[in-house]
Amino acid sequence: SHSEKGFLTRVQQVLLGSHNGGPLLYDKFLTIDSLQLHPPFDVAEKARLDNLTALDARLAKRLRWCMDPLVGLGCALAAIMLQLVTEKCWQWRIEVITAWFEGSGEQTAYTMFMACAMGTLVALAMTLVACIGCWWQPTAASSGIPGVIAFLNGCEWAGALRGPVLVVKVFGTALACAAGLFVGPEGPMIHAGTIVGMLTVNRVIRPTLRRLGGAWGAKMDLELAREPLRYHFQAAAMGAGAGVAAAFCAPLAGTIFIIEEAASYFSKRLFFHSLLTCCIAVLITKIISDSLGISEISMYNATTSCVLEQRWRPLLLLQATQVGVLCGILAAFFNRLTVKLNTMRALQARRLGVKGRFVVYRFLEVVALTVATTAFSVLVPAMLPCRDASLQTIFSDSSGCIPEEWQAQLVAGSKAVSSSRDVYGPRESTADKNDPRLAFIPAPGLFGVQFNPENCSRAVQLEPRCNITQVISAVTGSETPVDGISEVNYCCGFRTLDELAAGVGQERGNFFSAKNPHSPLLMKEELWPSDVCPSARKDGDNFGIGIPQYSPTAALLLANPRAVVRNILTHGPQQILPAHELALYLFGYFVLASFTSGAWVPSGLVLPMMIIGACAGR
């Protein structure tokens, strides 16, 4: 679009250094507020390098080492504050919702409406505060990860790495998560960690050097000003990794995120500093969390060694392929829907501007999402039936793996037995008959019978109906004894001899029914909420004890998001989360999470993606 003569003239100006802004000398460089420029090698820079001593180089190296603990400490404090606010506000919202269900028996339309309405009001109070923060600091909205990656690879991100943005990011994310929106805190913690890294250099290290004064302080302050890639960018990169590490308590995850996603200029030195910073952040986070009593829910539920050995089968490859294809299809639809929605938001902002009606629309969008999410989270668990929280529910469809937290309720003990003794169960055909193996002794209420050589003989004397022959007769209608079963060691299931003796002479003694055994299973309330369910039902065949109830959908919608991942990954009881309820949850969560992504609240997608993928796989 320009004449050839004009173009050649501009080329000559650039080559001769006489452009419109004048030559970029060292003094002019120091006045430019940009991290993307390197100092020009002019007379002043040459003189500075000539005067640089070995001591100055060592001090600069020590200065880089000082950034590691400072950035790690800052990211840990941000993560602790986010966890603390999220936990307190989440508990408040759940208490308001469940207060309308507790003790109400069967749920009525009135209790469901009031629980939904009060939960919505509390959630709106949280999300509107987060929305006001994003109106004040627009760059705090969403996760901030694309901006962090762009910044760490050479793009300016003006106004997004300041203290006010950090405050809105941390507290806004905590309120959005506590309000029950289908978002996660991990993505925003990356942005928050980047801000912490920048503030560590600009608001901690440099002011400290200026206060120290003297030639050494002036030299180090000048070193920070002229080497942004060495200090500012590395501090920002380490902060981004430490944010991931503090959120997941996983230092390797934070380091790998920087290597794979963020910094294209990664080096071995930066790798070591990033790993050290992430470790410091995780250590401080754990120490402060334990001292403050912040509950930390692991996403993975440990299981004991499985009874049934799982070997490689061609079917396993087909199953894994199916899960991969399903997750890929869901990811494609999610990305397409999210990009479409955010494109519409961007076009609306361009058409209306960033004031007036645009702000009103963004606020109304957050209100609509909050109402829809709360209604889905409250009404679905209240309307769907609850299930018995009993040993039989967990064990009847088990794959042979027992979660550690329930093992003590399912088994009364264990002992080493010879593989040749089939009375303890079938042995592997390839097993050595002389090779001992571990046998579990089932709890008395699991099958209504028990192996108890110490107390069974006394129990039969107290209660003749506790004789194993009588128990078998009650179940099969035949008194034919089972080969290898000794009446001395086996008897009916009971909890204590005192309880058994107290029921002697009653029509239904105090022992478990072998025909229809039911024994309560204690499930953690924070993982498996039961407030939306009716009170425990009485079981007349088994002591008349109360069998508690649990709601599978409440474990997905009213539990902490990290607890939701843990529940979905529960290994062993296959139908503890029924497939049709999982499908309903997956559909609602998928749609609402895609609409929430990009709304005017600080939010992340790492945890929602884990939930969607785990739910689809299960």
Please name the defining characteristics of this protein.
59% helix, two-stranded antiparallel sheet, mainly alpha, 5% strand, single chain, 618 residues
What structural category characterises the helix and strand content?
mainly alpha
Q: How much helix, percentage-wise, in residues?
A: 55-70%
Mean pLDDT, to the nearest integer, reads 82
The description of the largest β-sheet is: 2 strands, antiparallel
The largest beta-sheet arranges its strands as 1-8
Uncertain ranges: 10-19, 422-430
Oligomer classification:
single chain
Strand content: under 5%
- Give me the count of strands: 8
Give the count of helical stretches.
24
Form type: elongated
Q: In whole angstroms, how far apart are the ends?
A: 60 Å
Radius of gyration: 32 Å
Short description:
With 618 residues, the protein is mainly alpha-helical.
Describe the protein's topology.
Layout: H1 4-16, H2 26-30, H3 43-50, H4 54-98, H5 109-136, H6 145-152, H7 163-178, H8 186-212, H9 214-226, H10 232-248, H11 251-262, H12 268-292, H13 314-352, H14 357-383, E1 387-388, H15 391-395, H16 404-410, E2 411-418, E3 436-442, H17 444-447, E4 449-451, H18 456-462, H19 468-476, E5 490-492, H20 497-502, E6 537-538, E7 546-547, E8 549-550, H21 554-557, H22 561-568, H23 579-596, H24 606-617
Helix pairs in contact: 4-5, 4-7, 4-8, 4-9, 4-10, 4-12, 5-7, 5-14, 7-8, 8-9, 8-10, 10-11, 10-12, 11-12, 13-23, 13-24, 14-23, 22-24, 23-24
